[in-house]
From TrEMBL:
<feature type="repeat" description="ANK">
    <location>
        <begin position="148"/>
        <end position="180"/>
    </location>
</feature>
<feature type="signal peptide">
    <location>
        <begin position="1"/>
        <end position="18"/>
    </location>
</feature>
<keyword id="KW-0677">Repeat</keyword>
<keyword id="KW-0732">Signal</keyword>
<protein>
    <submittedName>
        <fullName>Ankyrin repeat domain-containing protein</fullName>
    </submittedName>
</protein>
<feature type="repeat" description="ANK">
    <location>
        <begin position="85"/>
        <end position="117"/>
    </location>
</feature>
<keyword id="KW-0040">ANK repeat</keyword>
<dbReference type="Pfam" id="PF12796">
    <property type="entry name" value="Ank_2"/>
</dbReference>
<feature type="repeat" description="ANK">
    <location>
        <begin position="115"/>
        <end position="147"/>
    </location>
</feature>
<dbReference type="InterPro" id="IPR002110">
    <property type="entry name" value="Ankyrin_rpt"/>
</dbReference>
<dbReference type="InterPro" id="IPR036770">
    <property type="entry name" value="Ankyrin_rpt-contain_sf"/>
</dbReference>
């Protein structure tokens, strides 16, 4: 009897192994909090990645898994790990317009600045005004340049987000940055025929 009980206890407390890998990924993607909580309690590595380098935290942000996300964050993951595309959990959270996730990540110490494409570019492209505000208040570089030279302002103009453009200009975004394709924020506004955005940019001394 004692031997059977010891074996059962050992089985219950063993760290999650390879057989649980798919269960965890599916649990995170489908926001199954119970499954994820159980696997974490069994010792599953919170920094496990999928075949594209996505950590569980990045997957939760990418899939807007709002119930699973705080469980993963409480397990103290590496916040700034990047997938093979250079994306972090903060980038995906703001791209999915998950303000609560963005706030939680910033409070936990996630980086708002990085080389190349960064969280502010993703927020500007998605039109996530609340996330943008939080990151700017946290010290994000309003004129951060992606690998091809685009700034958050250029991305906001490319995708037609008037309120985002106004907020970035309020934080002194440079309206005259030219990316490697020869595009400025104003040129994007003109191409899109966004008259409101054209007016905002011209008022900020933007040049073609």
């Amino acid at each position: 009897m004692k031997g059977w009980l010891a074996a059962l206890l050992l089985l219950v407390t063993l760290p999650a192994g390879a057989e649980s890998y798919d269960d965890m990924l599916q649990g995170v993607k489908n926001d199954f909090a119970g499954d994820v909580s159980e696997l974490l309690a069994r010792g599953f590595d919170v920094d496990t990645t999928d075949n594209q380098g996505n950590t569980l935290l990045i997957l939760a942000a990418s899939n807007s898994s709002t119930r699973v996300f705080p469980l993963l964050l409480a397990a103290r993951p590496k916040l700034n790990r990047k997938n093979q595309f250079g994306e972090t959990a903060l980038m995906m959270a703001t791209y999915r317009k998950q303000t609560g996730m963005v706030k939680a990540l910033l409070e936990a110490g996630a980086a708002v600045n990085q080389e190349g494409w960064g969280p502010l570019h993703y927020a500007a492209s998605a039109g996530h005004l609340e996330g943008l505000q939080l990151m700017l208040e946290a010290g994000a570089d309003v004129n951060a340049k992606a690998a091809e030279g685009s700034t958050p302002l250029i991305m906001a103009a490319r995708d037609g987000h008037t309120e985002v453009i106004a907020l970035l200009l309020k934080y002194k975004a440079d309206p005259n940055v030219v990316n490697e394709s020869g595009m400025t924020a104003l040129r994007w506004a003109i191409r899109r025929e966004d008259t409101d955005n054209m007016e905002l940019l011209v008022e900020a001394d933007a040049q073609q």
